[in-house]
């Protein structure tokens, strides 16, 4: 006890602002349930496993720790699993995320000799008792983000803004209680009653061919009649009826639904439920995950354990992260950087005071968690559904928190695009290794792209950039099974068959070779209204694209999500025939050739004019009225992209002492604000296009968006084209390079109608066999879906 009293000055009582870690080690995935328990530093409130707490004592000198140990309680073996009835987690009727119950025990441990004192105990100093009680009663920082998840439910429906003002047409339509059929086709399911005119039409077609024929939504586009109710979901409980608002693009409540139904002679009290609502259909998908092919459902997957076969716990719509990280930590570059050549101790010694906020530390922690095999062991309880051995997996909470910091989407619990996350992560990794680019694993994915533009004058321009992915269009016209497709379409049309009544195996889908997708990328493309600096006017040019270097790892992104008529996102229902080995040697660009003449430098006059920075006069006037200098006010408005008075005022206070504050405003096109560029990137525009648009629009994001839509060929505009007489070699640019032969080793597949919903799964070639990584489930793959990938990962084959 005297030893503890002598170290009381190193004990803190937590304040509400303190981040308290007590569920997971900051350097590993040890928890209170691990063999050695967890040690909470009573000064910094960071937690450490038994093998790592001494490192913290060496680094900080903090000697007093709260030791937390959890041991499982016995539970009945025949405890039944309840089927969810609500799209929710952690609430009655939701998905059962109940875990084995544990008993906790505590003690105070003093390092370096691990002297243990019991807790609770009245003999402990009051400061220690208060500090420990505060730690135990606090919500752990590791789970603070998970609090929302613990009671996650599908968004509650809101009353439609169109319901109270809905005008119904007196057409004399009387809707019968059953026997409905689409007014424009033979569909008898998934039917929607428009509440304005009484038209009964089929719903949207799903990406896999099921559903309706889009007649209901097309009717809305023609008439602007806003509300429709799904027939078969109307019962005496009107709130459970599926009402959809097309202008609001969401399921809604109609407070006057009884009145609106009565207009068409519908007595809702006598109707029976025969159709699933939209939310129930989503629940059914979440319950069954019945995307059999990709998840290899129904196959007897043999679980696999050991180094490199560790699953990742789904934190709630985090499968995009899990699939991406499993593949990245199957590459030599990431393994070398964050596992084999960097120990946990070294990463901890280099980390700041709080290692949970350090990307290098958390990547190293994740790498060791996935690759050491320490956590890839069978648990005592078998999988309830398959009775097979399973592993718990590791939860990438701290990694997700630090990699998503400051990003509105990745820091949320919503599903994200795996491609967006991959690019975001590589950007963060590159920034984190900027002082040692030779250690940067993201460079193994980088390659040079060169666009050659041939003007009708005969002169050329070369535009170069670096990229990390090869994004490929899918030319459906190159399908190899056209005859089979035509026969299938004729058969279904002739017999009136509906695809939603057919099994997946019966539906014939286009099969497009990967070679055709690569050929489309490299094929010549016409650019209309191209401004030629040689002709001083617009003309038609020819653009061809090639690669200046071949990366260690080549990532192919299949553009399965396209914009349909009316800007409606659509997923292409197509198979891609991907060989195990590809050769892209023919895609290497050759640079400026003998006899070619470069286009002269210059930009269109109208672009030069619009690129001048202009301050918003209203903002400037308001700032001047506050007593600020006119020139300073103009600079503030320009440098905040005319965002508003408050933003400009903040800029003024931050830049009052700038040495150039009184210098005249430059009339040259200044660089654009990076946050504005990031905003346009989040809209789906390429970075170089966003920068050009912002320069041409004085930094105004809304105007820049309009500029992009009005300049569809902006990506190959002559504004920022870097013309050069000789192409730099990959060695000069620091990019990896080698031969053009690649072997497929990883696939990220997506199931669902959008990249922002559904589920992601990874398949990885390891030790000569394909392995499926489906969140925490890891098993030998018997039928990897090579033709259904969203992202394909290839490794260069060295000669």
Automatic annotation (TrEMBL):
Keyword Repeat found: yes
All residue ranges annotated as the USP domain in the record: 310-797
Organism: Brassica oleracea var. oleracea
Annotated residues for binding of Zn(2+): 182, 185, 202, 215
Keyword annotations: Hydrolase, Metal-binding, Protease, Repeat, Thiol protease, Ubl conjugation pathway, Zinc, Zinc-finger
Annotated CDD domains: Peptidase_C19B, UBA2_atUBP14
SUPFAM superfamilies, alphabetized: Cysteine proteinases, RING/U-box, UBA-like
Domain UBA: 614-655, 671-711
Keyword Zinc: yes
Catalytic activity field: Thiol-dependent hydrolysis of ester, thioester, amide, peptide and isopeptide bonds formed by the C-terminal Gly of ubiquitin (a 76-residue protein attached to proteins as an intracellular targeting signal)
A single GO molecular function term of this UniProt record: cysteine-type deubiquitinase activity
Gene Ontology terms: biological process: cell communication; protein deubiquitination; proteolysis; signaling
Protein name, per record: Ubiquitin carboxyl-terminal hydrolase
Phylogenetic lineage: Eukaryota, Viridiplantae, Streptophyta, Embryophyta, Tracheophyta
EC category name: hydrolase
Functional description taken from the UniProt entry: Recognizes and hydrolyzes the peptide bond at the C-terminal Gly of ubiquitin. Involved in the processing of poly-ubiquitin precursors as well as that of ubiquitinated proteins.
InterPro entries reported in the protein's UniProt record: Papain-like_cys_pep_sf, Peptidase_C19_UCH, Ub_carboxyl-term_hydrolase, UBA, UBA-like_sf, Ubiquitinyl_hydrolase, UBP13_Znf-UBP_var, USP
